[in-house]
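2024-03-11 09:14:02 DEBUG pipeline.ingest accepted 1 chain
2024-03-11 09:14:02 DEBUG pipeline.ingest length=253
2024-03-11 09:14:03 DEBUG pipeline.predict start
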Amino acid sequence: MIEERQQHHYGVEGNGVSREQRTELIRMHLPLVEFVVDRVAPNVPAFLSRDDLKGAAMTGLMEAANRFDPGRGFQFKTFAEHRMRGAVFDEIRKMDWFSRSMREKQSRLHRVIHEEEERLGRTPDEQELARAMGLTLDSYHQLLNEVGHLGCVSLNQTLGDSGEGDSFQDSLEDHRADKPQESLEKSELTAIMAEQMEKLSEKERLVVSLYYYEELSQKEISEVLELTEGRISQLHSQALHKLKVKMDKALAD
């Protein structure tokens, strides 16, 4: 009780960060707002303005400052980026922007990916998926464009069916200085992700690696791979949906 009164007196919260320190964390990391918005902008519905994205990212930054506990060993920048992205996709989910028909298209795509993997004993390519869905390759590419945003929303949802635990995005990140048990769990999850990544096509692996590990934009990736931005978007969408199906199945097994 005495310690709590002392913390209140000096402006220190239970996580050991004072109000002044929180304010300074927010001020120092304001450039992250633009960075996060630039990263997520290609993967959100067009009707969401840049101001909408910046507002959600700013909310995430303030939440990160309020929740940050330096005792857990995380760098604030890593913690804040994760929460800011989450805040943006939380806002998208709250708006429930994708229609029932779009959800059904995504569910059908996931089902066909799973069925074709079981039938072929390997990861199907896009021609095989298009054929299994009764679509031309152009129509299949259009489907990927339509459900691409849903894949990125799914990226920030938790893996498996429990609704709890690490998200798909967490397993693509390298959180340093975790506690031993957390480090073990994350290393196991990362190992599963690495195994599933190897089952993607070379171009899909490159797109995921360049986007999530090297933090290149889709425009920059298109220049590196000498493909159009539209094609990069399709490969990105396809890779995410394949990985989501693979990771859910691997964790269930």
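2024-03-11 09:14:41 DEBUG pipeline.report The radius of gyration is 20 Å.
2024-03-11 09:14:41 DEBUG pipeline.predict end
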